[in-house]
Amino acid sequence: MVKKLSYLNIAFAIGYFLLYLLNSTSFAMVGILVVIVFNAVVLKHLEKDEPFKSVHFVMGATNIFFAGFMTLWVSHIVISSINYHYFGNTWLYIAFTSFFI
């Protein structure tokens, strides 16, 4: 079951990456691509029961750095949305989005 969900997660991540290519910054595109590659490599190593190497730890650290960057980015967007009232119902969007997080 976990294997099927992992492959589904990778497929959705690739789809998201392809949609994100339409308009984004290069840092975000590289970060999403690293997350996709890291998930695929880890899944392959878990299936074969191979030990992890230093490359996996470097890619994992890169994923953690990218997740921190995205968290900071989202917090700035939410704070700006609240301060400048970009949307009339900002709290509804925040509540709806936090449901998926």
Keywords, separated by commas or semicolons:
single chain; 101 residues; mainly alpha; elongated
Outline the fold blueprint:
Blueprint (H helix, E strand, L loop, with lengths): L1 H19 L5 H23 L5 H31 L5 H11 L1
Distance between the termini: 22 Å
Largest sheet: none
Helical residues, percent: over 70%
Q: Summarize the helix and strand pattern as letters.
A: HHHH
Strand content bin: under 5%
Task: Tell me about this structure.
The protein has 101 residues and is mainly alpha-helical. It has one domain (2-100). The protein has helices spanning 2-20, 26-48, 54-84, 90-100. Helix 2 crosses helix 3. The mean pLDDT is 77.
Brief rundown of the structure:
The chain is mainly α and 101 residues long. It is 83% helix and 0% strand.
